[in-house]
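Below is one such record:
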Amino acid sequence: MTPTSWRLVAGGAGIALAVALTACNDPGVRDADSGDDGVLRISAGIASVSSLNSINAQLLWADPALAGEHNLEIDWMDFGGSSPNCWTAVIAGEIDLCVASPAGATAAIAEGQGLRFVTSLTDVMSELVVSPELAASAGGPDAPVEDRLAALQGGTVATSNLGTSHAAYLDLMLDRVGMSFGEEVQALTLTDPVAMIEGIKNGRFDGAMWTVGSFETGVLSGDVVRLLSTPAGDEPRLQGVPFVIAAGSSAWVDANNQAVDGFRAALNEAAAVIESSPDDAAAKLKQQFFPDMEEELFRNGFEQVVPLINMDGMVAAEAWQTNLDILQQSNENSLEGSGYDTDSLYPAMRG
């Protein structure tokens, strides 16, 4: 079964589908070294390339020579925004590694799947935009964070489902002023940034929270104002908390430590290149993934994401636990199996 057909089979069924399928057809463990030239050939999926939240992996895709310097040849696949399908493909042995939010992997581990996190790519990148009127009542984007948060009381914010990603991040922020998301600030589930901007512009709700860079058209036009942002350091408790990670099956990782180490090193080099040569890196990323986007829009998003790159792929214990505490809100099963000191983390990831 090809990776493309996996996307069709897994659509809407989520990770749980892989349990039954792999039970009937054990994919085994593929050796990453598949040629006589000594090059380690691996396959990796990215849950979505519609934003830059996997920026260091995306640069490896756009510039294969970076991976080549670490004796790697990577066959990349875009899963079109579907993290569950990406993890399903890993579990089925269709791909070696998945680059995505940690949410799907932790849920799969809680269901008994053998996955292992190997590196962290980026830290939490979330921003809240509001109407110009609400921003003014808060004292503007440079007002104390507590004042900006307090101004949300009685309002409605559109974002992900309660207990998941951006909604959980906002709830954590609101706790600073004694409020909760879904109570003092009303929640509206919406996942389309364009619809979010239009909803604020037309007065249907007051604000929206989503991935950094998603609202650039609205910010530049003045229809919305960026009020809170993790790149700006508005929530210190989210600093260092992973937003995008990479993981593979435990069996594959155990059998391919050299490829895993090379993958980690290549990602770290990509991060260093983005930091040292941002113009060159930005040009390659835009050409590969956003050729039709206006340059100003792209550069604004790029510049916001760069400070959130994890430069060494390591995560501190406290930051990892914050990640699990946030994810636990939307999981019925215990996430203890993904704990910092468990086998679910590749040793080099702890730092």
In short: The longest helix spans residues 257-276. Residues 1-27 have pLDDT under 50 and may be disordered.
